[in-house]
UniProtKB/TrEMBL annotation:
Protein name, as recorded: Rrf2 family transcriptional regulator
PROSITE patterns with a match to the protein in the record: HTH_RRF2_2 (PS51197)
Record's signal peptide: none
Coiled coil, from the record: none
Pfam families: Rrf2
Superkingdom of origin: Bacteria
Organism: Microvirga terrestris
């Protein structure tokens, strides 16, 4: 099954950008994401329309995050990329004539709607600042583990 990984990928790109003091080029971001710079530019153009990133032209130009990380949620990004389908499963037919299938669709649609509301609420609680803090905590933990392992190798 093919998953839509755009949200995850864009969050990845934005967290890399958040750690940069200079604008980041589409080429640099494309290398990090193992994709084509055109794909990055297309995504960033959509984010720019929503006021989430800005571009700077010329030598030394590139992309920057346009808002404070604490004000940007995963839901903001999700909506900026067009609110893609959350679930990879769905009804066999959308307008069935069979009463059994109508019952199945009604139950599934209710469950999907409830699950989507909960997921979008959670997306609205997670900020880029929280993701960045988690990333930095993991980096610190890894550095501490490596330092500890180096010390135990010497002993």
């Amino acid at each position: 099954m093919k998953y839509d990984s755009r949200l995850s990928g864009i969050l990845h790109v934005l967290l890399h950008m958040a750690d940069e003091d200079v604008p980041v080029t589409s080429e640099h971001l494309a290398k990090a994401m193992r994709t084509n710079p055109v794909v990055i530019r297309r995504i960033m153009a959509g984010l720019r329309q929503q006021g989430l990133v800005r571009s700077e032209k010329g030598h030394g130009g590139g992309w920057r995050i346009a808002r404070d990380l604490s004000t940007v949620t995963v839901r903001d990004i999700y909506e900026a990329i067009g609110s893609p389908h959350i679930f990879a499963i769905g009804n066999r037919t959308e307008a069935p004539g069979c009463l059994v299938e109508q019952s199945v669709n009604a139950a599934m649609n209710d469950a999907f709607a409830e699950a989507e509301v909960l997921l979008l609420e959670q997306f609205g609680k997670v900020t880029l600042a929280a993701l960045s803090a988690d990333f930095h905590a993991r980096m610190t933990q890894r550095a501490n583990q490596c330092a500890f392992e180096d010390q135990t190798d010497v002993a």
